[in-house]
Amino acid sequence: MVKSTLIFRNDGLPLSATVDDDQTQNLTEQKNQAKAIVNKVNSNSATEASIRSGNYTIHYLLRESIVFLVIVDKSFSRNLAFAYLQEIANEFINSHGNAALRSDTRPYQFVSFDSFMSKTKKLYQDSRTQSNLDHLNNELSDVKRIMTKNIEDLLYRGESLDDMSDLSYNLRAESKKYRKAARRINLEALIKQYVPVAMVGIFFVFIIWWIFLR
């Protein structure tokens, strides 16, 4: 389930966050890791990524110099997590996007946005909603590729979010290459299947022309 949602500007300024209602879970470590992830994000970073952290996963979405993060149980659907982040991002940018990027913006200036995030979180906790969105996003899973890394790799071994972006680009390039190859193979199969039939048809038309119309 969704545990916590945080919104930062990509320069590290916190803009908003949910008031977590599950006090039995201590997410201090994951929230600190989320801040560290924001500090690593730049214009070359992957716009979407998932980072595993113990029993949780931190997903982030970069939109218009704003980083939207959600901390979820590691069993929570990744597609669903990004659908949730997209909805949060769309509403926040529409409502506060320009103000959030101003130089005089204060930390947590948009704390009231928690109201929308809390309502949206409840919607995404509903099992029927999860089932419907999972089905929809599974149809898109081979189109959108979202990279997953371990928090240890990212924060403690010095790996870069830029590397994830490069890997994501390479995967998309490979996917395009294989799609082109598949189309070529299908075209060759169609040619092999129908060219003989076409040749026979042309031959009969020629015979008819030769006998009756010449």
UniProtKB/TrEMBL annotation:
GO terms for biological process: endoplasmic reticulum to Golgi vesicle-mediated transport; intracellular protein transport; retrograde vesicle-mediated transport, Golgi to endoplasmic reticulum; vesicle fusion with Golgi apparatus. PROSITE patterns: LONGIN, V_SNARE. One of its GO terms (molecular function) is SNAP receptor activity. GO terms for cellular component: endoplasmic reticulum membrane; ER to Golgi transport vesicle membrane; Golgi membrane; SNARE complex. It is a single-pass type IV membrane protein. SUPFAM superfamilies: SNARE fusion complex, SNARE-like. Residues 6-117 form the Longin domain. Residues 132-192 form the V-SNARE coiled-coil homology domain. Belongs to the synaptobrevin family. This is Protein transport protein SEC22. Gene3D superfamilies: 1.20.5.110, Longin domain. The chain crosses the membrane at residues 194-212. The keyword Lipoprotein does not apply. It holds the Pfam family Longin. It comes from the Eukaryota. Keywords: Coiled coil, Endoplasmic reticulum, Golgi apparatus, Membrane, Protein transport, Transmembrane, Transmembrane helix, Transport. It is found in: Endoplasmic reticulum membrane; Golgi apparatus membrane. CDD domains: Longin, R-SNARE_SEC22.
